[in-house]
Amino acid sequence: RFHRTTILVSIKNLSVNSSTIFLSVKNNYGTNLREGDIAVSSRSQKNCFARSCLWTRSVDGKVYIAYSVSHAYSEEDVENIKKGMKLIEHDTCVRFVPRTHQRDYLDIQPKTGCWSYLGARGGRQTISLQTPECTGSGVTVHELMHALGFVHEQSRADRDKYVTIMWSNIWNDRLRNFEKFKTNNLDTPYDYGSIMYAFSEDGEPTIVPKRNWNVKIGQRFGPSDLDIMKINRMYKCNA
């Protein structure tokens, strides 16, 4: 698991160049996005509290999520995407399985940008992982966790106790990416090391820790221990 974090929420410290794609308001396919990478539609919701927006837990205690991957991806892209799936499967009850006949499934496509819908929507559900910017295993984990029902860590209702949003460093058309929402935090502490941060390319830090300025926020390596805990609690993996 990834205990140590190395990335401040600012483009000058990012080792991936997908941040500019995360924060586009609308991509070339006309998909409306909130918080930079959460696709919205007329039936989208801001939070995923109800069981109806979660993927079904099987009688064996596992959560099987069918998926298909576009043939437009290279072998390396597919390998990285599957690596991201494995990072989520490790220490959780979630299992990603290639689609055969399932009605509900994730359709992973190299559209414009990195984005996903929030929670299970039913039927074919698109995740966009543009190649090569978004096909890294860490970015894959981030978007898959949106599909599992998780919002960005800085959107937590209690975030102001732990971080300061540097509004003066945020472009006006990006302000909505830093809104707070009523969230079910699953009795977990605020996670500075979560993979679920929306990065900014504005050039200056946009999220600053309140208690320790030396703490780095966010990363794109894999789910943190607390990310794993949230998945297990959300889907009752240990029940």
Write the layout of secondary structure elements.
Layout: H1 19-22, E1 33-34, E2 38-39, E3 63-69, H2 75-89, E4 94-98, E5 105-109, E6 114-116, E7 124-129, H3 137-148, E8 163-165, E9 207-209, H4 225-234
Parallel strand pairs: 3-4, 3-5, 5-7
Antiparallel strand pairs: 1-2, 6-7, 8-9
Helix pairs in contact: 2-3
CATH class category label of the largest domain? Alpha Beta
Number of strands: 9
- Largest sheet descriptor: 5 strands, mixed
Give the count of structural domains: 2
Give the helix tally: 4
CATH architect. name of the largest domain: 3-Layer(aba) Sandwich
Look up the CATH topology of the largest domain.
Collagenase (Catalytic Domain)
Name the structural class.
alpha/beta
| Strand ordering within the main sheet | 4-3-5-7-6
Strand content: 15-25%
Report the span from N to C terminus. 22 Å
The CATH homologous superfamily of the largest domain is termed: Collagenase (Catalytic Domain)
Could you characterize the architecture of this molecule?
The chain is an alpha/beta fold and 239 residues long. The protein folds into two domains: 32-148, 3-Layer(aba) Sandwich (Collagenase (Catalytic Domain)); 153-235, Collagenase (Catalytic Domain) (3-Layer(aba) Sandwich), CATH 3.40.390. It has helices at 19-22, 75-89, 137-148, 225-234, and strands at 33-34, 38-39, 63-69, 94-98, 105-109, 114-116, 124-129, 163-165, 207-209. Helix 2 (75-89) packs across helix 3 (137-148). The longest helix is centred in the middle third of the chain and has 15 residues, at 75-89. It starts with 18 loop residues before the first helix and ends in a 5-residue tail after the last helix. Residues 43-238 form the Peptidase M12A domain. Its cofactor is Zn(2+). One of its GO terms (molecular function) is zinc ion binding.
